[in-house]
Structures are given as C-alpha cells and as structure tokens.
Amino acid sequence: ELAQLAPGELRTLLQPFMGGQWQNDTPTLRIPYYRPLEPLQPGFLPGRAEQHLAGQIFSGLTRFDNNTQRPIGDLAHHWETSTDGLRWDFYLRSTLHWHNGDAVKASHLHQRLLMLLQLPALDQLFISVKRIEVTHPQCLTFFLHRPDYWLAHRLASYCSHLVHPQFPLIGTGPFRLTQFTAELVRLESHDYYHLRHPLLKAVEYWITPPLFEKDLGTSCRHPVQITIGKPEELQRVSQVSSGI
C-alpha cells in the first residue's frame, strides 16, 4: 500500500519512524535508502554501500586503522614475516565466534581463503600467494612466490573478508545480518564481537526509492536523511540545504 502513495505523502508518513529510535529498549538507527542493495557475495562488490555493509558484517585477518590507515590485527591479533619476505604467520585470536555462536577455527578461515584465491576478480590481489596452510590450531601461514610487503594491506581489503564456511551470510563483524530483502535490510549487534562493541544495537536500511525523486530535492549523492528530535517536533522540520 505504501507504494501507491505520492512521494511527498510517503516522506511525511515515514519521517517520524526514521533516524534514532528506541525500539523495545533497543537503540536503533533507521536509514532511508535510494536503491535495493545487491547480495553480499564474498570477494569483489561494486557498490559503496555493499562494501560498507560487508565491513560491518564480516572481518578479515587484518583491518585498516581508522586514524593511520595502516593495517592492524583483526581476526589475527598479530603477524610475523620471515627475513626473506616469503613466509607470513598470522596468529588468530582465541575467542572468536561466528554470528551463529560457532567458535571460529583456523580451518574455517583457511577454507574461505582458498575459495577467495580461486575467484577470477581477485587474481591480481593475491598473485604473490603460493599456498596457505594451517601450521598451528591458532596460526595461518602464507607462503609466497615472491616477497609482497603489501600482503597485510591486501588482507585488510573488504575483498578479503571471511565468511562462515557453510553459511555465506554469517560473519564475525560487529553486526550480524538478520534480514535482507528488497525493502528492508536489518543488522543487529554481535554480542561476541572480538573488538570494541558499537553503541547501536540495530541498524535498518529502509529501501524507499520514491523518497529520492528529483522533485523532493534529494539525490543519490547523499541519500541518507536522518532527523533526530521529539516526535511532536518533526512536523516543523524542513530542508534548509541540499549541499554536502
């Protein structure tokens, strides 16, 4: 029925439900979005929104530090490199869990890494990798054809995020995917996340293309509109600028 409403009426109807909300004592952020999201397949993802979501749902052996943009440990708490640069040992954290509660094993990550090596889109990303072995229950070892001192950077890329060996939408990131449809994508926080936990407990993407029609003054250049305030104040909200 919502699809039958004019864009302006739809925005007025949905606006009180967007932004920061408390739902059943759960801090939730609702974000209107201008297009359906593509499936989150392992490996290359073309859309920026999909790349961002992959970074929230999945983790890699390494990740980029937000301040320095240098690779630091993620699933691996640290790594060591041989003097000739041909062997890299990644030591895994001991308390890792998938979103479904399963303990993360080195064999799980090994299996997914081998699958990534077979993807044509990632040929150049891992061209230096000769083989990967589980050399200890808590250690993954990369053997290289030639020294590649960018390997930790490559493993921090969203392309290198690792998923559950049996369930491709289950990861180890700060949020777990609980709903993925053409109309709604919902993420909920992962209670056993191995790093700092997010303040939000849930994030929802409401897929509402009519809200971004040109006549409403919005565009896909900055598709998210979030209004925070008391419900009785929302009727007085008006757009003052369309700039970024």
Describe the structure.
This protein is α+β, with helices and mostly antiparallel strands and 244 residues long. It has two domains: 2-40 and 174-236, no CATH class; 48-160, Dipeptide-binding Protein, domain 1. It has helices at residues 7-14, 48-57, 106-117, 151-156; strands spanning 19-23, 26-33, 62-64, 71-73, 76-81, 87-92, 129-136, 139-144, 175-180, 184-189, 202-207. Strand 7 and strand 8 (139-144) form a beta hairpin. The radius of gyration is 21 Å and the shape is elongated.
Major β-sheet profile: 5 strands, mixed
| Structural shape | elongated
Provide a count of the helices: 4
Strand order of the largest sheet: 1-2-11-10-9
- How many domain units? 2
- Unreliable segments of 5+ consecutive residues: 1-7
Cα gyration radius (Å): 21 Å
| H-E string | HEEHEEEEHEEHEEE
Percent of residues in helices comes to: 10-25%
CATH class category name of the largest domain: Alpha Beta
CATH architecture of the largest domain, please? Alpha-Beta Complex
Find the count of extended strands (DSSP E, 2+ residues).
11
User: CATH homologous superfamily of the largest domain?
Assistant: Dipeptide-binding Protein, Domain 1
Mean pLDDT: 84
